[in-house]
Amino acid sequence: MKKKISLGFGMLFFLIIFPLVGWLIYMLIAAPERICSTELRVSVLIILWLIGLLGAFIVKMSRQNKMLEENNRQLAELDRLKTEFLANVSHELRTPLTVIIGYSELLAERLSKEEGDATNLKCIQTVHRKSEDLLLLINDLIDFSRIESGKLEMKISRVQLEEIVNETVEEFATSIVKKGHKVEVVHKDTPLWLYADRGKVKQIIANLLHNAIKYTPSGGHITIRTYTLKGYCRLEVEDNGIGISEDQITQIYQPFKQADSSYNKKYEGFGLGLAITKSLVRGHQGKIEVRSQLGKGSLFIVSLPREKTI
C-alpha cells in the first residue's frame, strides 16, 4: 500500500511540478528577456503552492495509512481473541460432555438387560446419541480453532490409503444401516502408499463420508473409489443425494456455511466439515474439487501426493 502511494506521489511530482520548474529554468537561460519580474514571481508562487499542496496531501495520506494500520492491528487482535475463545469454550465443554456420554452408555447397557424399562432405555439412548452429536460439533470447533491459529500438528508416516478407507467405512456402519444406504468401495490400484498424517487422512475421509450420508435421502447410494493418477493418490466420494447448486459451490468451503444456511435448516451442524477438510488436504500439499448437480448428487475428489515427503 505504501509503495503504491509513494509511486503516486512521484508521478504527481514529475507530471506537474517538474515540468513547471523545467520550463522556468529554460526560460531563464534561453530567453531571460521574455520573463518579467511579475511572471517570475507568479511562476515561483505557483510552484511553491503546488509543493505545499503536495506536502499537505502526503501528510493526510500518512495519517490515513496510520489509521488503516491501527484498524488492521485491532482486527487481527479480535480475530486472535475469537480463535482463542472458540478453543477455550470447546475444551471446557468437551470434558463434561465426555462424562455424560460415558454414564449414559453405562446406563443404557444396564437398562437393556432389564425388562419393563423400554421407555427409560429409549430416553438414555437419545441422550447418548445427542451427546455424541454435540461432541462431534465441539471437535470441529477445536480443529477449526487450531487451523485458524496455525497450531495444527502433522505426524507424518507411511500409510496405506485403502486401509484407512476400509476402517472408516466400517466405523460408519451403524449410520449407513440406519439410513438404509448402499455403500460401494472400489480400490482400483493397490497398494496406495503415501506419506501423511494417518489421523488427518482418516478425518478427511470421515468428513466426506459423513456429508454423503447426511445429505443423501434414505436408501441412497454412495461410492468410494481410490486409485492413482499422475503421481497422486486419488480418493473419490460420490453420492446420489440432494446435490449442490452452482451458486452454492463457491461457498461450501467457507466456515459456518452449508448448502442450506437458513436459521430453520433441515440439517444440523456448524458447517465446518468441508472447511476443515480443505485445510487438511492443503496441509498435505493436496487438492480437493467437487462436481455436483442440484437434486442429482455430488462427487468430491481428493488428490494427495503419492509417497512424497511433506
Give, in order, the helices and strands.
Answer: HHHEHHEEHEEHHEE
- How many strands appear in the DSSP assignment? 7
| Strand residue content | 15-25%
Please state the average pLDDT score. 77
Report the span from N to C terminus. Answer: 34 Å
Question: Helix segment count?
Answer: 8
- How many strands, which pairing sense, and closed or not: the largest β-sheet? 5 strands, mixed
From the spread of the alpha carbons, the general shape counts as elongated
Q: What's the gyration radius in Å?
A: 32 Å
Which spans have pLDDT < 50 for at least 5 consecutive residues?
A: 261-265
Count structural domains: 2
Written description of the protein model:
It is found in: Cell membrane; Membrane raft. Keywords: ATP-binding, Cell membrane, Coiled coil, Kinase, Membrane, Nucleotide-binding, Phosphoprotein, Transferase, Transmembrane, Transmembrane helix, Two-component regulatory system. Pfam families: HATPase_c (PF02518), HisKA (PF00512). One of its GO terms (molecular function) is phosphorelay sensor kinase activity. This is histidine kinase. This protein is of the alpha+beta class and 310 residues long. The chain folds into two domains: 152 residues; 150 residues, Heat Shock Protein 90. It is 60% helix and 16% strand. The protein is built from eight helices and seven strands, in the order αααβααββαββααββ. The strands form two sheets. A five-stranded mixed beta sheet has the order 2-4-5-7-6, with helices on one face. A two-stranded antiparallel sheet has the order 1-3. β6 and β7 form a beta hairpin. α2 runs antiparallel to α3 and α6 runs antiparallel to α8. The longest helix has 76 residues. The two termini are 34 Å apart.
